[in-house]
Amino acid sequence: MHMSRYFTDEHEWIDVEGDIATVGITDYAQEQLGDIVFVELPAEGTTFEKGDDAAVVESVKAASDVYAPISGEVVETNSALEDEPALVNSDAEEDGWFFKLRLTDASELEGLMNEAAYKKFVASL
Amino acid sequence: MSGTDDVTHIEEELPLQTLPLDAWHRDRGARMVGFAGYHMPIQYEGIMAEHGWTREHAGLFDVSHMGQLTFTGDGVDAALEHLLPSDIRGLKPFRQRYSMLLDDEGGILDDLMVSRLGDGAFDGADIYMVVNGATKYDDIGWMIEHLPDEVTMNHMDEQALLALQGPEAGAALASLIPETADLLFMQSGLFTWRGVSLWISRSGYTGEDGFEISLPGDDARLLADALCALPQVKPIGLGARDSLRLEAGLPLYGHDLTHAVSTIAADLGFAIQKRRREEGGFIGHARVMKELADGPGARRVGLRVEGRRPAREGAKIFAGSVEVGEVTSGGFAPTLGAPIAMGWVSTPYSAIDTALEIDVRGKRIAAVVAPMPFVPHRYRRKP
C-alpha cells in the first residue's frame, strides 16, 4: 500500500490516506531535539487550523511546540508515546507518529514538500 | 516546530569566541552552541547517554570558558576577606573552598572556587580563583574596584580548564599521573605530565568524585586526547553537565543564583565560616547577619515533580491559588527517570515534603519539596 508522504519546513511529516493524515516529526527533528522524555498530545475531537499549537515535545534540554501542519480534526493520538516517549527518537517517521487528523482542506497539502525536496531542504540547513 | 526554552540560553550579542579545544570537540562530532560568549559543545552522542556514562564511568568536560584568576601581594588574605564572606586566612596551601562575591546589599554577584596555591604554581601567586564564564568580566571589574593596589590580580585567559568527573575518574587520572590518587575532595596540587604543569583539584560540579585540571590552552589537546584514549573516559557536553549538577542539587549562577538573592536564602550559609559571621568585615555582611537572625523570606529548595513532564525555569509555583515561588532550574533527571526542579519558595512553604503545584505551560502539576541532592554525592573524602 502506498501513501503520499509530505514534509513541512517545521520538520513534520504527513502521511495522507483518503481524508486521514497521520502527523509526526522527522528523523532530523528528533535528532536536533535529543532525548525525548515527554510528548503532550491533543485531545481527540480537537479541531485545528493550520499553524495552531498541536503538541509539545519535551527533550532533556528543552520544550518545543509542534504546530498543526494542516487543518483538521484529531481522530486518534499515539497512546504508545505516553509510556515510551523515546519512540520518537528510535522511530520518528513510523511508530513515533503523534496524531491523526481528518482533513478539512486537502488543498493545503499542495504547498508542502515531498521527500526529495525535504532532504534537499535539510541539507541546506 | 520551535524551541521555546533552551538550557543554553544563547545570548549572541557579540561574535562568539573559540576556546582551545574548539576543533577537538568538532572532530569528535560535538554539536556546538553559543554559551557564555563562546562556541561550546552541548552534546556528542546525546545527553542521556553522556549523563549515564558520567555517573557510571568518567566524563571529560571542557570548562575553559570559566574565568581563572590569581592573586598575589602583601595583604592578599585581608583583601580577599573583604571581597568574600569565606575564611581565607584559615585556608591552607593546596586547599580549596566554595565561596561567592556579594554586592553591597548582600546579593550574590557570582559563586566561585578559591584555593591557596603552593609549590610555586602559577608563577608563585598566592591565591587561585575560578569564577563563572558568563560573569567573569563583571567579576574582574568588581574586584579591581575593591582590591588595594598592593594586590595584583591576573586573569589567565590563555589557560584551559578540564573537568574529569565520575566514579572511574580517580583510576583514569592515576593511570596517567599516579600521584593524583592521594588527593581528597577539595585538595589540590601541582603536577607535571609530559613536561606540562597541571594544577589539579579534586572537585567538580556533578556530585561525583573527580578533578578539575588547569593547564595551558596549547597543551589541552594533548591531555584531552590522552584522557579520552582511556577506556573509562568519554567527552561530555554542557547538556549533561547541567542535568548532572541539577541532580546533585548544585545551583547554577544566572539561574538559581542571581544578584537579587542572598547567601542564606540560597542555602549556601556553609560557605561563610563561623569567624566570618561573627567578625564580619566583608561586603554584604549586614544582609547575612539579618537573615541568619530573622530567616530569609524565601528559600532555594528542591522539587520532585509528578509524572514525566519537566517543569522548567520560569514556571510559577503555587500553594492552592497563592503563588509562592518560581522554578529556577528544571528538567528530566536521567538517573531518577523523573522530572526534578530547583526553585525559590516563600519560607512558610519551603519545608521538606510540602505539597505544591507548578504551572507548566498552563497545566498544574503536583510537586513536593524534596531534600537535595536528589542523587547522593560521591566525593572522595577522608575515610
Automatic annotation (TrEMBL), chain B:
Q: Which UniProt keywords apply?
A: Aminotransferase, Transferase
Swiss-Prot/TrEMBL catalytic activity: N(6)-[(R)-S(8)-aminomethyldihydrolipoyl]-L-lysyl-[protein] + (6S)-5,6,7,8-tetrahydrofolate = N(6)-[(R)-dihydrolipoyl]-L-lysyl-[protein] + (6R)-5,10-methylene-5,6,7,8-tetrahydrofolate + NH4(+)
Q: Name one Pfam family in it.
A: GCV_T_C
Specify the GCVT N-terminal domain's residue ranges: 22-275
**Keyword field contains Mitochondrion:** no
Enzyme Commission number(s):
2.1.2.10
EC class name: transferase
One Gene Ontology term of the molecular function aspect: aminomethyltransferase activity
Q: Where is the Aminomethyltransferase C-terminal domain?
A: 299-375
Gene3D superfamilies, per the entry:
Aminomethyltransferase beta-barrel domains, Aminomethyltransferase fragment, Probable tRNA modification gtpase trme, domain 1
Q: Which InterPro entries match?
A: GcvT, GcvT/YgfZ/DmdA, GcvT/YgfZ_C, GcvT_C, GCVT_N, TrmE/GcvT-like
The family annotation for this protein states:
Belongs to the GcvT family.
The protein, known as:
aminomethyltransferase
As recorded in Swiss-Prot or TrEMBL, the protein's gene is named gcvT
